[in-house]
Design a protein that fits this description.
Order of helices and strands: HHHHH
Helix content: over 70%
Structural class: mainly alpha
Radius of gyration: 30 Å
Number of strands: 0
Mean pLDDT: 85
Distance between the termini: 93 Å
Low-confidence stretches: none
Largest sheet: none
Strand content: under 5%
Shape: flat
Length: 121
């Protein structure tokens, strides 16, 4: 008898009732406006055509790649600054040296395009 009662209690506990979240008219209107704006932005996006000149395409690709390289350099620069700061806090000379190397590498990577332009003229 006790086992049957426990099974019934377990069965009752596993049944879950889901309800809709209450949504006011103001929230419904805001949601409708948001959905409409997303649809307008998606449907109204203009088609982008590639440039006719192959040199322009290569220059655009070069600009994009150097932008990515600059972003990686900035990340390394920030990591180097944090590493130097932590080494100053913990008085660890080897970590300080690694921090300054990372910092220098980040600066070089960040300004790679400008350095190459100076070298090539």
């Amino acid at each position: 008898m006790k086992l049957d009662m426990r099974k019934k209690q377990e069965k009752k506990e596993t049944i879950k009732v889901t309800k809709k979240l209450p949504m006011t008219a103001k929230m419904k209107r805001a949601m409708a406006v948001y959905i409409a704006m997303v649809l307008i932005m998606t449907a109204g996006a203009s088609t982008v055509f590639a440039a006719d000149d192959p040199l322009t395409v290569i220059n655009n690709l070069s600009t994009f790649i150097f932008g990515l390289i600059r972003a990686i350099g900035m990340i390394l620069l920030g990591f180097g600054i944090v590493q130097v700061g932590l080494s100053l806090k913990s008085h660890d000379p080897s970590q300080r040296a690694n921090g300054f190397l990372t910092l220098a590498g980040g600066v070089i990577i960040t300004f790679a395009k400008e350095i190459l332009n100076l070298i090539t003229g």
